Amino acid sequence: MGDCPLCVPADPALLLWAGSRCRVVDAADPDHPGFCRVVWHRHVAELTDLLPADRAHLLAVVGTVEAVLRRLLDPDKVNVASLGNQVPHLHWHVIPRHRDDAHFPDAVWAPRRRPGAARSVDVAAIRSLLSMTLPRD
Known about the structure:
Helix content is 24%, strand content 19%. It has 137 residues and is an alpha+beta fold. Strand 1 and strand 2 form a beta hairpin. Helix 1 crosses helix 2 (123-133). The radius of gyration is 15 Å and the shape is globular.
């Protein structure tokens, strides 16, 4: 799909992990450090477009990303969503949330409630832990 931004390979600086079926990228959202996207390589729109084994694999990767973010960032909550309304290419958002972030308790796409606390994330640590816990399949 030539016009699909998720069909284009990830910027190497943002790539956190890649397997043969999907990849994890840093969304580089300054309001939500640690915000990751899990992107299925093949262009499909819905989870049910995948074979059962591929669905299980994708959800295992999403769960592992959540676990890594919880371990490293100690968020108050983690939002996990697959929307695809604007980009109909199967991908999941995994977003660590903190009570003092700019949008909490609303969705990250809602209007800001406050400036939000400054928070840094060790992207190299996320990349390293994902590499240790996810198979290259």
